[in-house]
Amino acid sequence: MNTKSWMILLVAALTLAVACKSEIDGKAAAEVAEPTTEEAAPAAEETAKEEQAELRELPFNTEASKIEWVGAKVTGDHTGGFEKWEGVGHVRGEQTLEKVAFTVDTTSIVSDDERLTGHLKNEDFFAVEKYPTAKFESTKIEEGAEGDATHTVTGNMTMLEATKQITFPVTVKVEEGTMVVDSEFTIKRFDFGIEYKGKADDLIRDEVLMKLHMELPLSEPAVAAEPAEEGAAPAEGSEG
Asked: According to the model, what pLDDT value does residue 54 have?
């Protein structure tokens, strides 16, 4: 093989090495198991204290929250998310997140490429006409996690026809009356029946990075009093 051929191979190898770098690399992988409906009971020493605090079911602020993803193939990453979803968090007192549940409208999937968005909606990926929703409901939230995360969440995720139990790290904090839940973890799309491999020279990775930013207001916004109609009689006991 002559020098020119070696140079071509070297450039091709270097190009491939650069292309293989991905935002997915090095991120925590969700643990996957068969689904369960059992919810973990709080530790005995914590039960009495927790029962004294009010348990509330609160809606996520979907306008301030994001469910995003990163997919990768040989030639690079694609990013996207879901524009429509709704969910609730169960909060004990002002600091303890006990449960989360949310439903995603898969027809609202978007990506950084219009043609890809259309492809993601067909039978090769999400088959959104047949499966217009995906769901997650936690069965256990524990303090402590690997790395910088504060908690570990376990729950059942349903996508297409598959339901799997997944466990992943999250960071929970309270800022100015809002509980903020952030997480980044990878799931394997093959586990949920999404097995399209891509082009022979541009294969798609099994792992998909999920990026969650969810905001849970801990109090309902104040409702302003309606102004009194002109000429209306003053309320009983008021001056004038």
From this structure: 86
Task: Scan for tokens 């450039």, then name that residue.
Answer: 11
12 pLDDT higher than 50: no
Burial status of residue 20 (CB atoms within 10 A of its CB: 0-12, 13-18, 19 or more): middle
* Three-state secondary structure call for residue 7: helix
- In the predicted model, is pLDDT for residue 11 greater than 50? no
Q: In whole angstroms, give the CA distance from residue 50 to residue 96.
A: 9
Predicted local distance difference test score (pLDDT) of residue 15? 43
Name every residue whose Cβ is closer than 8 Å to that of residue 186 and which is 6 or more positions away in sequence: 24, 27, 28, 29, 30, 207, 208, 209, 210
**What burial letters (b/e) apply to 22-54, b meaning 16+ CB within 10 Å?**
bebeebbebeeeeeeeeeeeeeeeeeeeeeeee
Residue 51, pLDDT above cutoff 70: no
Cα dist from 103 to 11, 113, 118, 213, 221, whole Å:
46, 24, 21, 15, 24
